[in-house]
Automatic annotation (TrEMBL):
SUPFAM superfamilies tied to this protein: (Trans)glycosidases, E set domains, Glycosyl hydrolase domain
Domain of life from the UniProt record: Bacteria
One BP annotation, GO: carbohydrate metabolic process
Pfam families listed in its UniProt record: Alpha-amylase (PF00128)
InterPro entries registered for this protein in UniProt: GH, GH13_cat_dom, Glyco_hydro_b, Ig-like_fold, Ig_E-set
Source organism: Merdimonas faecis
Family to which this protein belongs: Belongs to the glycosyl hydrolase 13 family.
Protein name listed in UniProt: Glycogen debranching protein
Residue span, Glycosyl hydrolase family 13 catalytic domain: 134-445
Amino acid sequence: MREVQGQPLPLGINISGDHVNFSVAVPEGERCWLLLYRAGEEEPKERYEMTEAIGEVRFLALEGMDPADYEYNYMIGGEVTVDPYARGLAGRDIWGKERDIQKHEVRGVLKNGRYDWEGDEPLKLPFHSIVAYSLHVRGFTKHTSSGVEKKGTFSGVVEKLPYLKDLGINQIQCMPVYEFEECGRFRNYWGYGPAYYFAPKSAYAASGDGERELKDMVKACHKEGIEVVLEMPFTGDTSKQLMEECLRYYCLEYHIDGFLLNPYVAPMDAIHTDPILKHTKILVHDTGFQTVMRRFLKGDEGMVRDVMYWLRHQSETKEILNMITGQTGFTLRDLVSYDGKHNEANGEQNQDGPDYNYSWNCGAEGPSRKKAVTELRKNQTRNAFFLLLLAQGTPCILAGDEFGNTQKGNNNVYCQDNPVGWLDWSGLEKHPELHDFVKELIAFRKKHPVFWPEKEMTGMTYSKKGVPDVSYHGENAWRVPLEVSSRQLGVYYSGTDRTGEGDEDCFVAYNMHWLEHTFALPALPRGKKWYRIASTQEGVLDKAEPLDDQKFAEVKERTIMIFSGR
């Protein structure tokens, strides 16, 4: 090998044949050496002082080397430093095994980027057509009940793709999959905090090659029509330049369909105008939908006006997700089973995790054998899925909610790398009726375009029959029930869209009160009748039961019903 003229950009490494350029930011006044290791060895074979600099960037290039034979680090200010732009790490392929960087036990890998994508490209599914599913790559299949061969890995997710496709999912959202440090006082199971963001986590790869297996997972998902979104929370001290370069890298190198970002950290304006990222799905968490729907679900007063807003709201930048539950907080089963958090096992005296969950235990804290309690919980679970999947925005289901996964009241399982934090797939056998209900509800949503319009409904009339695209009702038709005490709402969706074509008329009656209520149904055009096609009380969907009284509908307590005008 011999030194040749290097370049300051791009930061990190740049490989061209047997020519490798190294570039790293170094604090002013510090000396820097490039350390080269034979692949798999923990003692440097070569050291090169990096003296060429522009600003705080040091750089050099080597010619005549086979990148696959080497790994690298830097020695900066007397300390071994892993390249923050490293595209892969050696020595991190075993989950939970502590490694000492100063002993050269972690090293950057020189990747050549060659991979057969077989013509794959990001799917670019229309935003309004998405039904998303949030998962943790390790926790998704680590439990013995998952039934997959390569548990807790990218390959394990691939083994579950037939299940996700059958459920009706067309986008998965993965918690951090880059090289974070899981070892410490508490296990960092979720992966938040400082990390090597460019390097896929090798411990999530059955083969130890995180780069290849993440690409395999993305390619397999795309073949099934499923997008892949990566959560990239970054830390507050991460440079804006690194964030943008990292997102571009995953778009170009891994064909990632989108990113879930922290808008208080990421440079959102720059990302939205970036020529590569501007057509990528950029998503953020927003607790508005979650808080409003949870409070409405449990019967809080004064929620109707906010429910109306969130049932039809679509972000102008199409970045907000609708979620009833997420990784931070209760699972859906726990949301209807616990009034308070139970995080004692986390070792922080139950002081961690959110205090305000807007949950309701339906009459008993935790597991219960009382029939009245268990039946009410089942009905509230179905109500929650109706609120989520009948809203106009983009729904995202927390993995396992569709079969009643529980964390035993823990609403902050960030350190629970065990069955508490993993999905227990035996829920599919214990609660098959819930899974089937969710599957049918997703199919129902897709069948009826009135629940997933491309643009937000406005309340304007677009058809000759004079009916607004969306209108709101109560026990009296065309009268919005905005009284503080009201816990019921009727929503009428006109089946005719802005083009004059569309779907059946649909009327959804939400009764979150503990009393039965009668809803006056809007009059239909001549020749059409109202049919009851779904009810959370019965847990059935898409039947066609004509109403005896075409003017009124009785809706039982804590029940949501759907009526179709045909």
